[in-house]
Specification:
The complex is a heterodimer of chains A (277) and B (305).
Chain A lengths: L1 H34 L4 H4 L14 H10 L1 H32 L5 H11 L4 H14 L6 H5 L6 H11 L4 H9 L4 H12 L1 H17 L2 H6 L8 H9 L6 H30 L1 H5 L1
Chain B lengths: L2 H48 L2 E2 L7 E2 L3 H7 L2 H33 L6 H9 L6 H12 L5 H8 L13 H26 L3 H9 L4 H12 L1 H16 L3 H7 L10 H11 L3 H25 L8
The chains are: A mainly alpha (277), B mainly alpha (305).
Chain lengths: 277, 305
Amino acid sequence: MDDTLSRRAQRTIAYGFLFFILISMATPFVWMISNTFKEQSQIFERQPTLIPEEPHLRNYVSLFVDFDFHKHFLNSAFIAVVHTFSHLFLASLAGFAFAKYNFPLKNFLFLVLLGSMMVPLYTIFIPLFVLVIRLGLVNSYAGVIIPGVAGAFGIFFMKQSMEAVPGELLDSARIDGASEFRIYWQIALPLVRPALAVLAVLAFMGSWNDFVWPLVVLRSRELQTLPVVMAGMVSLYRMEYGVVMAASLLSTLPILLLFLALQKQFLAGLTVGAVKS
Amino acid sequence: MSSESIVEDRGLRAWWSRSERKVVPYVFISPFYILFIVFSVGPLIYALYLSLHRWPGTGPMRHVGLGNYTYLAGDPVFLKSLWNTVYYAVGAFLFILPLALVLALLINSTLIRIKSLFRIGYFLPILTSTVAATIMFLLIFNNEFGLINQGLASLGIPALKWLDEELVKISVLAVVTWRYTGINVLYFLTGLQSIPPELYEAAQVDGAGTWAQFRYITLPQLRPIALFVGVVTMIGSFQLFAEPMLLANGGPNDASLTIANYLYRMGFTNAKLGYGSAIGWVLALIIFGLSFIQLYLFGAFRKED
């Protein structure tokens, strides 16, 4: 009896703590949503109100009319889509090579690949910017996309799943006279579709949320991505909190929807790197 | 087509069909290595070269030897940013990792039945961009109308200045904790789920209590994942950039400034590309050094038997 009671108490405490943290984490998000429907004067009020007294959509309207939110949204989307497809192609191609071929220097090259993940972004930041200027890529989407398109993590990730592709399948295609690229494209790639989906979400999210690199490369306002424009809204002399919060919320929605649609594969995929190391 | 070129073509084809499988893997992996050399290795070496010069981005460079580095060692703002960055890294280890471990242990325990609600709920913050996340917290920490101070006021407690010099680092840490706890919960959960249940069964047979099981089974078995989480947290903390910049613009009085913020200020705002590159190399050496120490402490270099 005593034992079951203490177990019940333990359970209550455990749930209490987990819910307390969950609510704490949800609070900033809920508060942000609430404030997108408020006037600046209501935001400044001493007494916090969760449900705005006279909710309105003026902040959202201002976002599109005064800040061209839709244009920057499309800029972000374009960069993220191009980055995602190029990254998936290069990562799966290299991952396929590392998983399914034996070639001289393979282990050494793979170590170099893993080591490349250790190079801190900020160490190469200034020379990379100089290089992008010299290549004439400054203020262009190519300058944002190309330097980071062949990430080592993606190759490592694709190698893990390409290893599960049966070698006999590839060999029988070779006997039929298929080229090595065709074997990759038509046999291996369709078999690793789940892994491609996970990597697609990760790549899209990384590009969509990227801030510092687009901040320095994209000089003219009409090219800029959402995080860059939003950061600019923060440092304005007189900040419109409601508008900035609306931008923050709308910029998060695509990733949130993508995640909720694919959460199962996504969570399984995220931890691959951790387990294998 | 002349007969000679047909023969040649046939020879080329024969060569290709013999060596396709030897050449192709190099072709497949070459994009990564070309981009890595051009956009990482090259800039890494160029950064070292730049760090030995004074250069405003245009015109001639002036060689200054190790001058940038010796100046850096006595630059009070750099030392402040170094201290702030160490503060954030230590804070991340003291707040995020223990919190994430406790949450993972609770979710993994038999006490809790609805596991996925917490797993997914804790994970959601990392989906927001650092920019959106930090903007959200402007409404929480604002000195006048922030949610926390409004809450304190309704309890009759005087407001605290969350974005002033004394507290701003805590506020930055709160944003970072909010955003990164969930992913670390997932990492720890993966580690916990890979511990063979037989270990616990055997320990229970031997009469080991909950604490003893945690101390002698869970903790040692979590070592690989803890190493991974530790290295990732350290590397991430030392490259903190957007949170202090957007929450307080590195201030007030450089109180929240990180090394990455200072590098950006020197390299891009003040056009001191040589000095900025020197900061970058010091940052790289710190990160390499600390990674090595972590790997050593966790015995990654010890031979397994």
